[in-house]
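Deviations from the work plan: none for this task. Representative record:
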Amino acid sequence: MAEKVGVYVCHCGSNIAGKVDVEQVAKWTGQHVKDVTVARDYKFMCSDLGQKLIEDDIKKEGLTRVVVAACSPHLHEKTFRRACSNGGLNPYLLEMTNIREHCSWVHSDRAAATEKAKSLVSAAAERVKWQQPLEPTYVDVNPATLVLGGGIAGLQATLELADAGHKVYLVERQPSIGGHMAQFDKTFPTLDCSACILTPKMSEAGQHENVTLLTYSELEEVTGSVGNFKVKVRQKARKVDYDKCTGCGVCVEKCPRKVLDSEFEAGMGTRKAIYVPFPQAVPRTPVLDTESCIWFERQRCGACRKLCPTDAIDFDQEDELLDLNVGNIILATGWKMFDCDQIPQYGYGRLANVFTSLELERMCNAAGPTAGKIVLRDGKTVPKRVAIIHCVGSRDIRHNAHCSAVCCMASLKFGHLLMEKLDAEVYSFYIDIRTNQKGYEEFYQRLLEEGMHFVRGKVSEVTDAARLPEEEGKLIVQCEDTLLGRQQRFPVDMAVLMGGMEPQTDARDVGLTCGISCSMAGFFTERHPKLDPVATMTDGIFVAGACQGAKDIPASVAQGAAAAARVQSMITRGKVMIEPIVATIDEENCSGCRICNNLCPFNAIDYDETRAVSHVITALCKGCGTCVSACPAQVITGAHFNNQQIFAEIEGVLWDAMQPTEATDASDTAEVSAS
Amino acid sequence: MKYAYYPGCSLESGSAAYDLSVRAVAEVLNIELEEIDDWNCCGATEYFTQDELVATSVIARNLALIRPDLRDVVAPCAACFLNLKKTDALMQDDPAMNAKINSALGAGGLHYDAGRVRVCHLLELLHTEVGEATLKEKMVQPLTGLRVAPYYGCQVVRPLGGLDNPEYPMKMDEMFKWLGADVVDYPVKAHCCGGHMTQISEDAAFELIRRLLQSAVDSKADLLLCMCPMCQLNLDAYQGRVNNFFNKDFQVPIIFFTQLLGVALGIDMQKLGFGKEIVGAEPIIQSRLAEQAAKANA
Amino acid sequence: MITETTEGHRSAFMREVMAETPGGEQLVHCLQCGSCGGSCPNGADMEFTPRAIFSMIAANRRHEVLASNTMWCCVSCYLCTTRCPQEIPITEIMYMLKRTSIAEGMATGTDAPALARTFTDLVEKHGRSFEFGLASRYYFFNKPMSLFKMGGMGFSMFTRGRIQLLPNKIRQVDQLQAIINKAKEIGGAS
């Protein structure tokens, strides 16, 4: 029976029509492609009226298949499937072809782009005739959620969900939740104390009945799919029994081994071998660092174990692997600071009084290693002149091409604190000052009033090679003052490097584990940069905070809340549709070779020992097609992507190389004739 | 190990000490250097200010003259090294230039296949290819007690040269640490010596030379080690005039790093070209080594 | 990379600089950050820093750029190129400006072209450069007064055997000259 195909070519305003003659494409399709009964072009197919066209034609013309040539199916496949349903047609009898991203946006020659669009439409029309009606299945959504990362974005997401009554597993790599924000002193532009606004959220998360806190833990494996993920988490051995420990702190106090704290104190302070990273840490349970512990070095000491009143120290404790079942996952893995010693001309690590912004944060903090005193590396000299150097490892294609977004405001904050606390002369060396959020420009104005010096120029070098008497014993910051057009040298006591925000070193691995991709810079890729900023291309995996791109606290909090809202809507819906685009194995003809078993990236193929055949677990299958192409006996079929459909599509795209359509019946030939 | 050798014009006259010491050191380390037959001047930076194609064609003639069985060429001079490297890279990356250069070479009956030879710097050869173990094994006279300031100059370590960290190179530092010397860390070791500015704008050049000498003196270096003829010339021959100009009294011996390496390998100082430098280096080297011998005997 | 459609939006001089400098297309990415001008060992002597020059190139101020002393302060130390956060081949652009300035007779107020000319004339004649010949000729014709200042230094060099009075000549000077003449005949940069 001949199908009746309706073809709809979208102008997308001028997005497509600007480079493709859409009217000609529609007209040509109607005249030249077999079985096409309706071919129209329309300004915006995704509009209500555009959808109505499809519905009406199905009803009036009795269409049995629909092709929409428009944008990416990622954007509007759902829209047009719904239109088909509304018209009474099975939604899987729709085929979308992308003549925008794949055609008009990437070509400049209008005639050639039009020809290409014809080929794409022809391919879709040939293919759609072989598509079969499919019925989606629905599975229940597990209402529990995994949040990876206990910084401010992850905390916000956790509390939003927990307060709404849903179970959350909050997994954090460090011994305490809190993230970078716990290290900061003041927050811009309001200068409120970072700890004062953060710690209530930390303790709330720590005590919440719906939150299971898994600190000092890392994600190992994710399987399953939206609604039903199975997650393996490695809880690293703290060597302290979480349940027995009361957080009294005797072990920490009595531990004789002091080591440099390169994590929380950014190398500015020390900690013990058994430690709680900071006073407000959540949980209060200490962690024993076996790398520096005397017991693990030479089986001596053991002071902590001897003195613990609740017998909570357990030197034999081992890593534990936890299996969690969750419906959704929020990644809030945060950022790391650019390694400033990668720019040797700034002297970090070589010149004592060159500091990183994180080091200065710790010094500003009253609970920090200097009790809030800002001093030079000698521990006592108060700097009188301070240089703040912007864009260290940011806006630099040899390191990070992106703008780190927070450093300008953080520099202004430091300028304020240095002037307020030390009455120092503060010089900010900037390329552009970027203060584009609420209240930020006002803060810049405030610093202009306070007398911070602004020099427009990227610093060329920081050196101790004095040329003039007044430079002796100082750090000299050399740059071009680009507004004067002159090379200048500024003798200062302290230089602060505003290290850029980078993705975590292992962000790509985490992305791989969760099946999501990263940008060139290594930040997680969101589903849509404007309209879907916290979802990813993998259903059920969301991102929030600086792991998605450099951003400040307000933006991280907003994303944390947004991701939680997205998860809540999934939970409330209760069921998630599983696409019927899955593989099926013809068990009659399966030889039981098991090649497909190991290839399946979703572990969706089971092997039946007794019958010696493989079969697909439909709920887990993502329809990727790997097994279909790998099966040596060719007994696996991918629904919606079977051979007939693919070959018809190829013939369609090669319409101009084929015999005239009336002479060729796609049903009895799969070869492409070379004309 | 066998390498094509491109000494360059400076090593024939003004920097003969470099040539002498390179050849002497190579012999002890069993490195065979075969001088390119009938090589011509690389043009330094002077052709590039006039005509890029002439500049690169003149350089490419030397590459084309390298015997087909040799895969590597060593050029001790910074300008020669960079010019050979830059031209080979340009010919590899830019097919149009490659064709033009080969067309010019064709007028002289020559041809060069871009990338056929690897342009290798002497420091890379000694530091990385000969390496720590061999240098230590062949060392006869440790340089203990001698405070040396390795000076890398500019072009060789910049990204085009690709020899070392462009801002803070370490290979010469490492090499002389292996040989027992006291290597001083001073901030201007990869800054410019003034290049040809000594001939164009003396005031500008003298200031650059002063900065380098001052930094070496501040770090209490006994001597400064160069790897480029231009650097050696500017810092050594112009030192007296810099002293007059700034009313200073610098007396910093400036030698080629291969000369001091030769000392460590036990080669006679005369064979290494000592005595050609204006500010004499022998007295301080002799006295430091004597101090060391006295300490060893005590 | 620049594409056909944006190229039309550059000033004529900017297109010229980009076309005649290897890697010159990177110039469109200049942030005007000044790390070049801040790094240059001779930056203090420049009328315009390299950054300012790039701005002037974009504004098509060709004459001012070619008449400036900026590129003549450049000693090709590549520090600016190393530090440029946008990987602009600044040293190569300076070479291009030097070439253009000489070719159009705008390189006045600097001895660099004379030095370059004297140097390459010697190379073309002998196949090797020749420090004594270069110095004596260059100073005699361009800075006769400097010869007196140079005298003492020259003497020290001479007594240490560092000055050769006669040039070395390569065997196949005619081959080198044929190559040079052919290159001049083909002409032009990349």
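Chain C is about 60% helix and 0% strand.
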